[in-house]
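User: Sequence recovery, please. Input:
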């Protein structure tokens, strides 16, 4: 495997960063996870836009333009002869000293890893997932806005650990006032009648790129799509529930905190959206 690192393609073993890199010392950096399907990079420009917004927010100047970075992604896929892949695009503050001061970091570290996609077990999509809500609350936008896709994922990891410790794969995180936000690496949706609902970004969720695609597909399927505050009650009493994310795509949820959701199996709206999403990934994207 060849990894793009600061302008060069290097072997996996040589793809290393300094222990003084603030990405490692402080989680000071930003990233994106991108998918390619059959030689098409899905939503590449949307991912690049979000990466640049995250970087701008933390005042990190990415040393490449968007077209240059897009080229690095395309080349990473070509060099590694991948057609279906998961791409990790990372920009860190770079090497500094042991203090926090970002001014000491003069050169951001940029790397792109393109690897074979590790698909989730098929069972997950056929049988659906069981979730629990956890005590770890989602970061509040006023402190560390979840909109910034930063290298600091401890908030999410703490929630994930809680789920795993309790015997579940994924956790629902709440806001400090008890509203549903998102899972540790996916957005959440419910279907109630003709309504397709997902929490609004201001409550503290990442504006997922899959989330946006699913909202658009929902509108095309004549669902009434809205961003709305949701409580656990709304989840428990929804007809259908599912999660969205670049890696996971659309994952049905069949049980939350012991309550069966709807019929206890992936519902018709979820399955229709999954099919429409699959079609979209086959037809849309940036060729390489
Ligand atoms: N929420 C969080 C916290 C995430 O890390 C991610 C991405 N893994 C998502 C939601 C889903 O976003 P996207 O659809 O853009 O991958």
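Assistant: Recovered sequence (288 residues):
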């Amino acid at each position: 495997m060849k990894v793009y690192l600061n302008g060069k393609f290097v072997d996996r073993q040589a793809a290393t960063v300094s222990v003084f890199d603030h990405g490692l010392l402080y989680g000071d950096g930003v990233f994106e996870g991108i998918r390619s399907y059959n030689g098409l990079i899905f939503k590449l420009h949307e991912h690049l836009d979000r990466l640049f917004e995250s970087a701008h927010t933390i005042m990190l100047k990415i040393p490449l333009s968007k077209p240059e970075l897009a080229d690095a992604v395309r080349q990473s896929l070509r060099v590694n002869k991948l057609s279906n892949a998961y791409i990790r695009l990372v920009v860190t503050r770079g090497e500094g000293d042991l203090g926090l001061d970002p001014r000491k970091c003069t050169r951001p570290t940029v790397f792109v890893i393109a690897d074979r996609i590790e698909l989730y077990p098929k069972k997950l999509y056929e049988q659906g997932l069981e979730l629990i809500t956890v005590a770890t609350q989602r970061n509040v936008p006023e402190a560390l806005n979840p909109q910034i896709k930063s290298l600091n994922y401890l908030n999410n990891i703490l929630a994930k650990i809680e789920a795993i410790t309790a015997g579940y794969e994924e956790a629902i995180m709440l806001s400090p006032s008890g509203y549903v936000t998102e899972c540790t690496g996916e957005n959440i949706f419910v279907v109630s009648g003709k309504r397709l609902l997902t929490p609004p970004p201001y409550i503290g969720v990442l504006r997922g790129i899959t989330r946006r695609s699913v909202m658009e597909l929902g509108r095309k399927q004549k669902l009434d799509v809205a961003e709305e505050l949701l409580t656990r009650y709304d989840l428990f009493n929804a007809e259908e529930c599912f999660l969205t994310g670049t890696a996971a795509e659309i994952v049905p949820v069949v049980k939350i905190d012991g309550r069966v959701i709807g019929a206890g199996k992936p519902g018709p709206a979820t399955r229709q959206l999954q099919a429409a999403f699959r079609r979209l990934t086959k037809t849309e994207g940036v060729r390489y």
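Helices lie at 22-26, 44-57, 66-79, 122-127, 154-165, 209-220, 232-236, 268-283.
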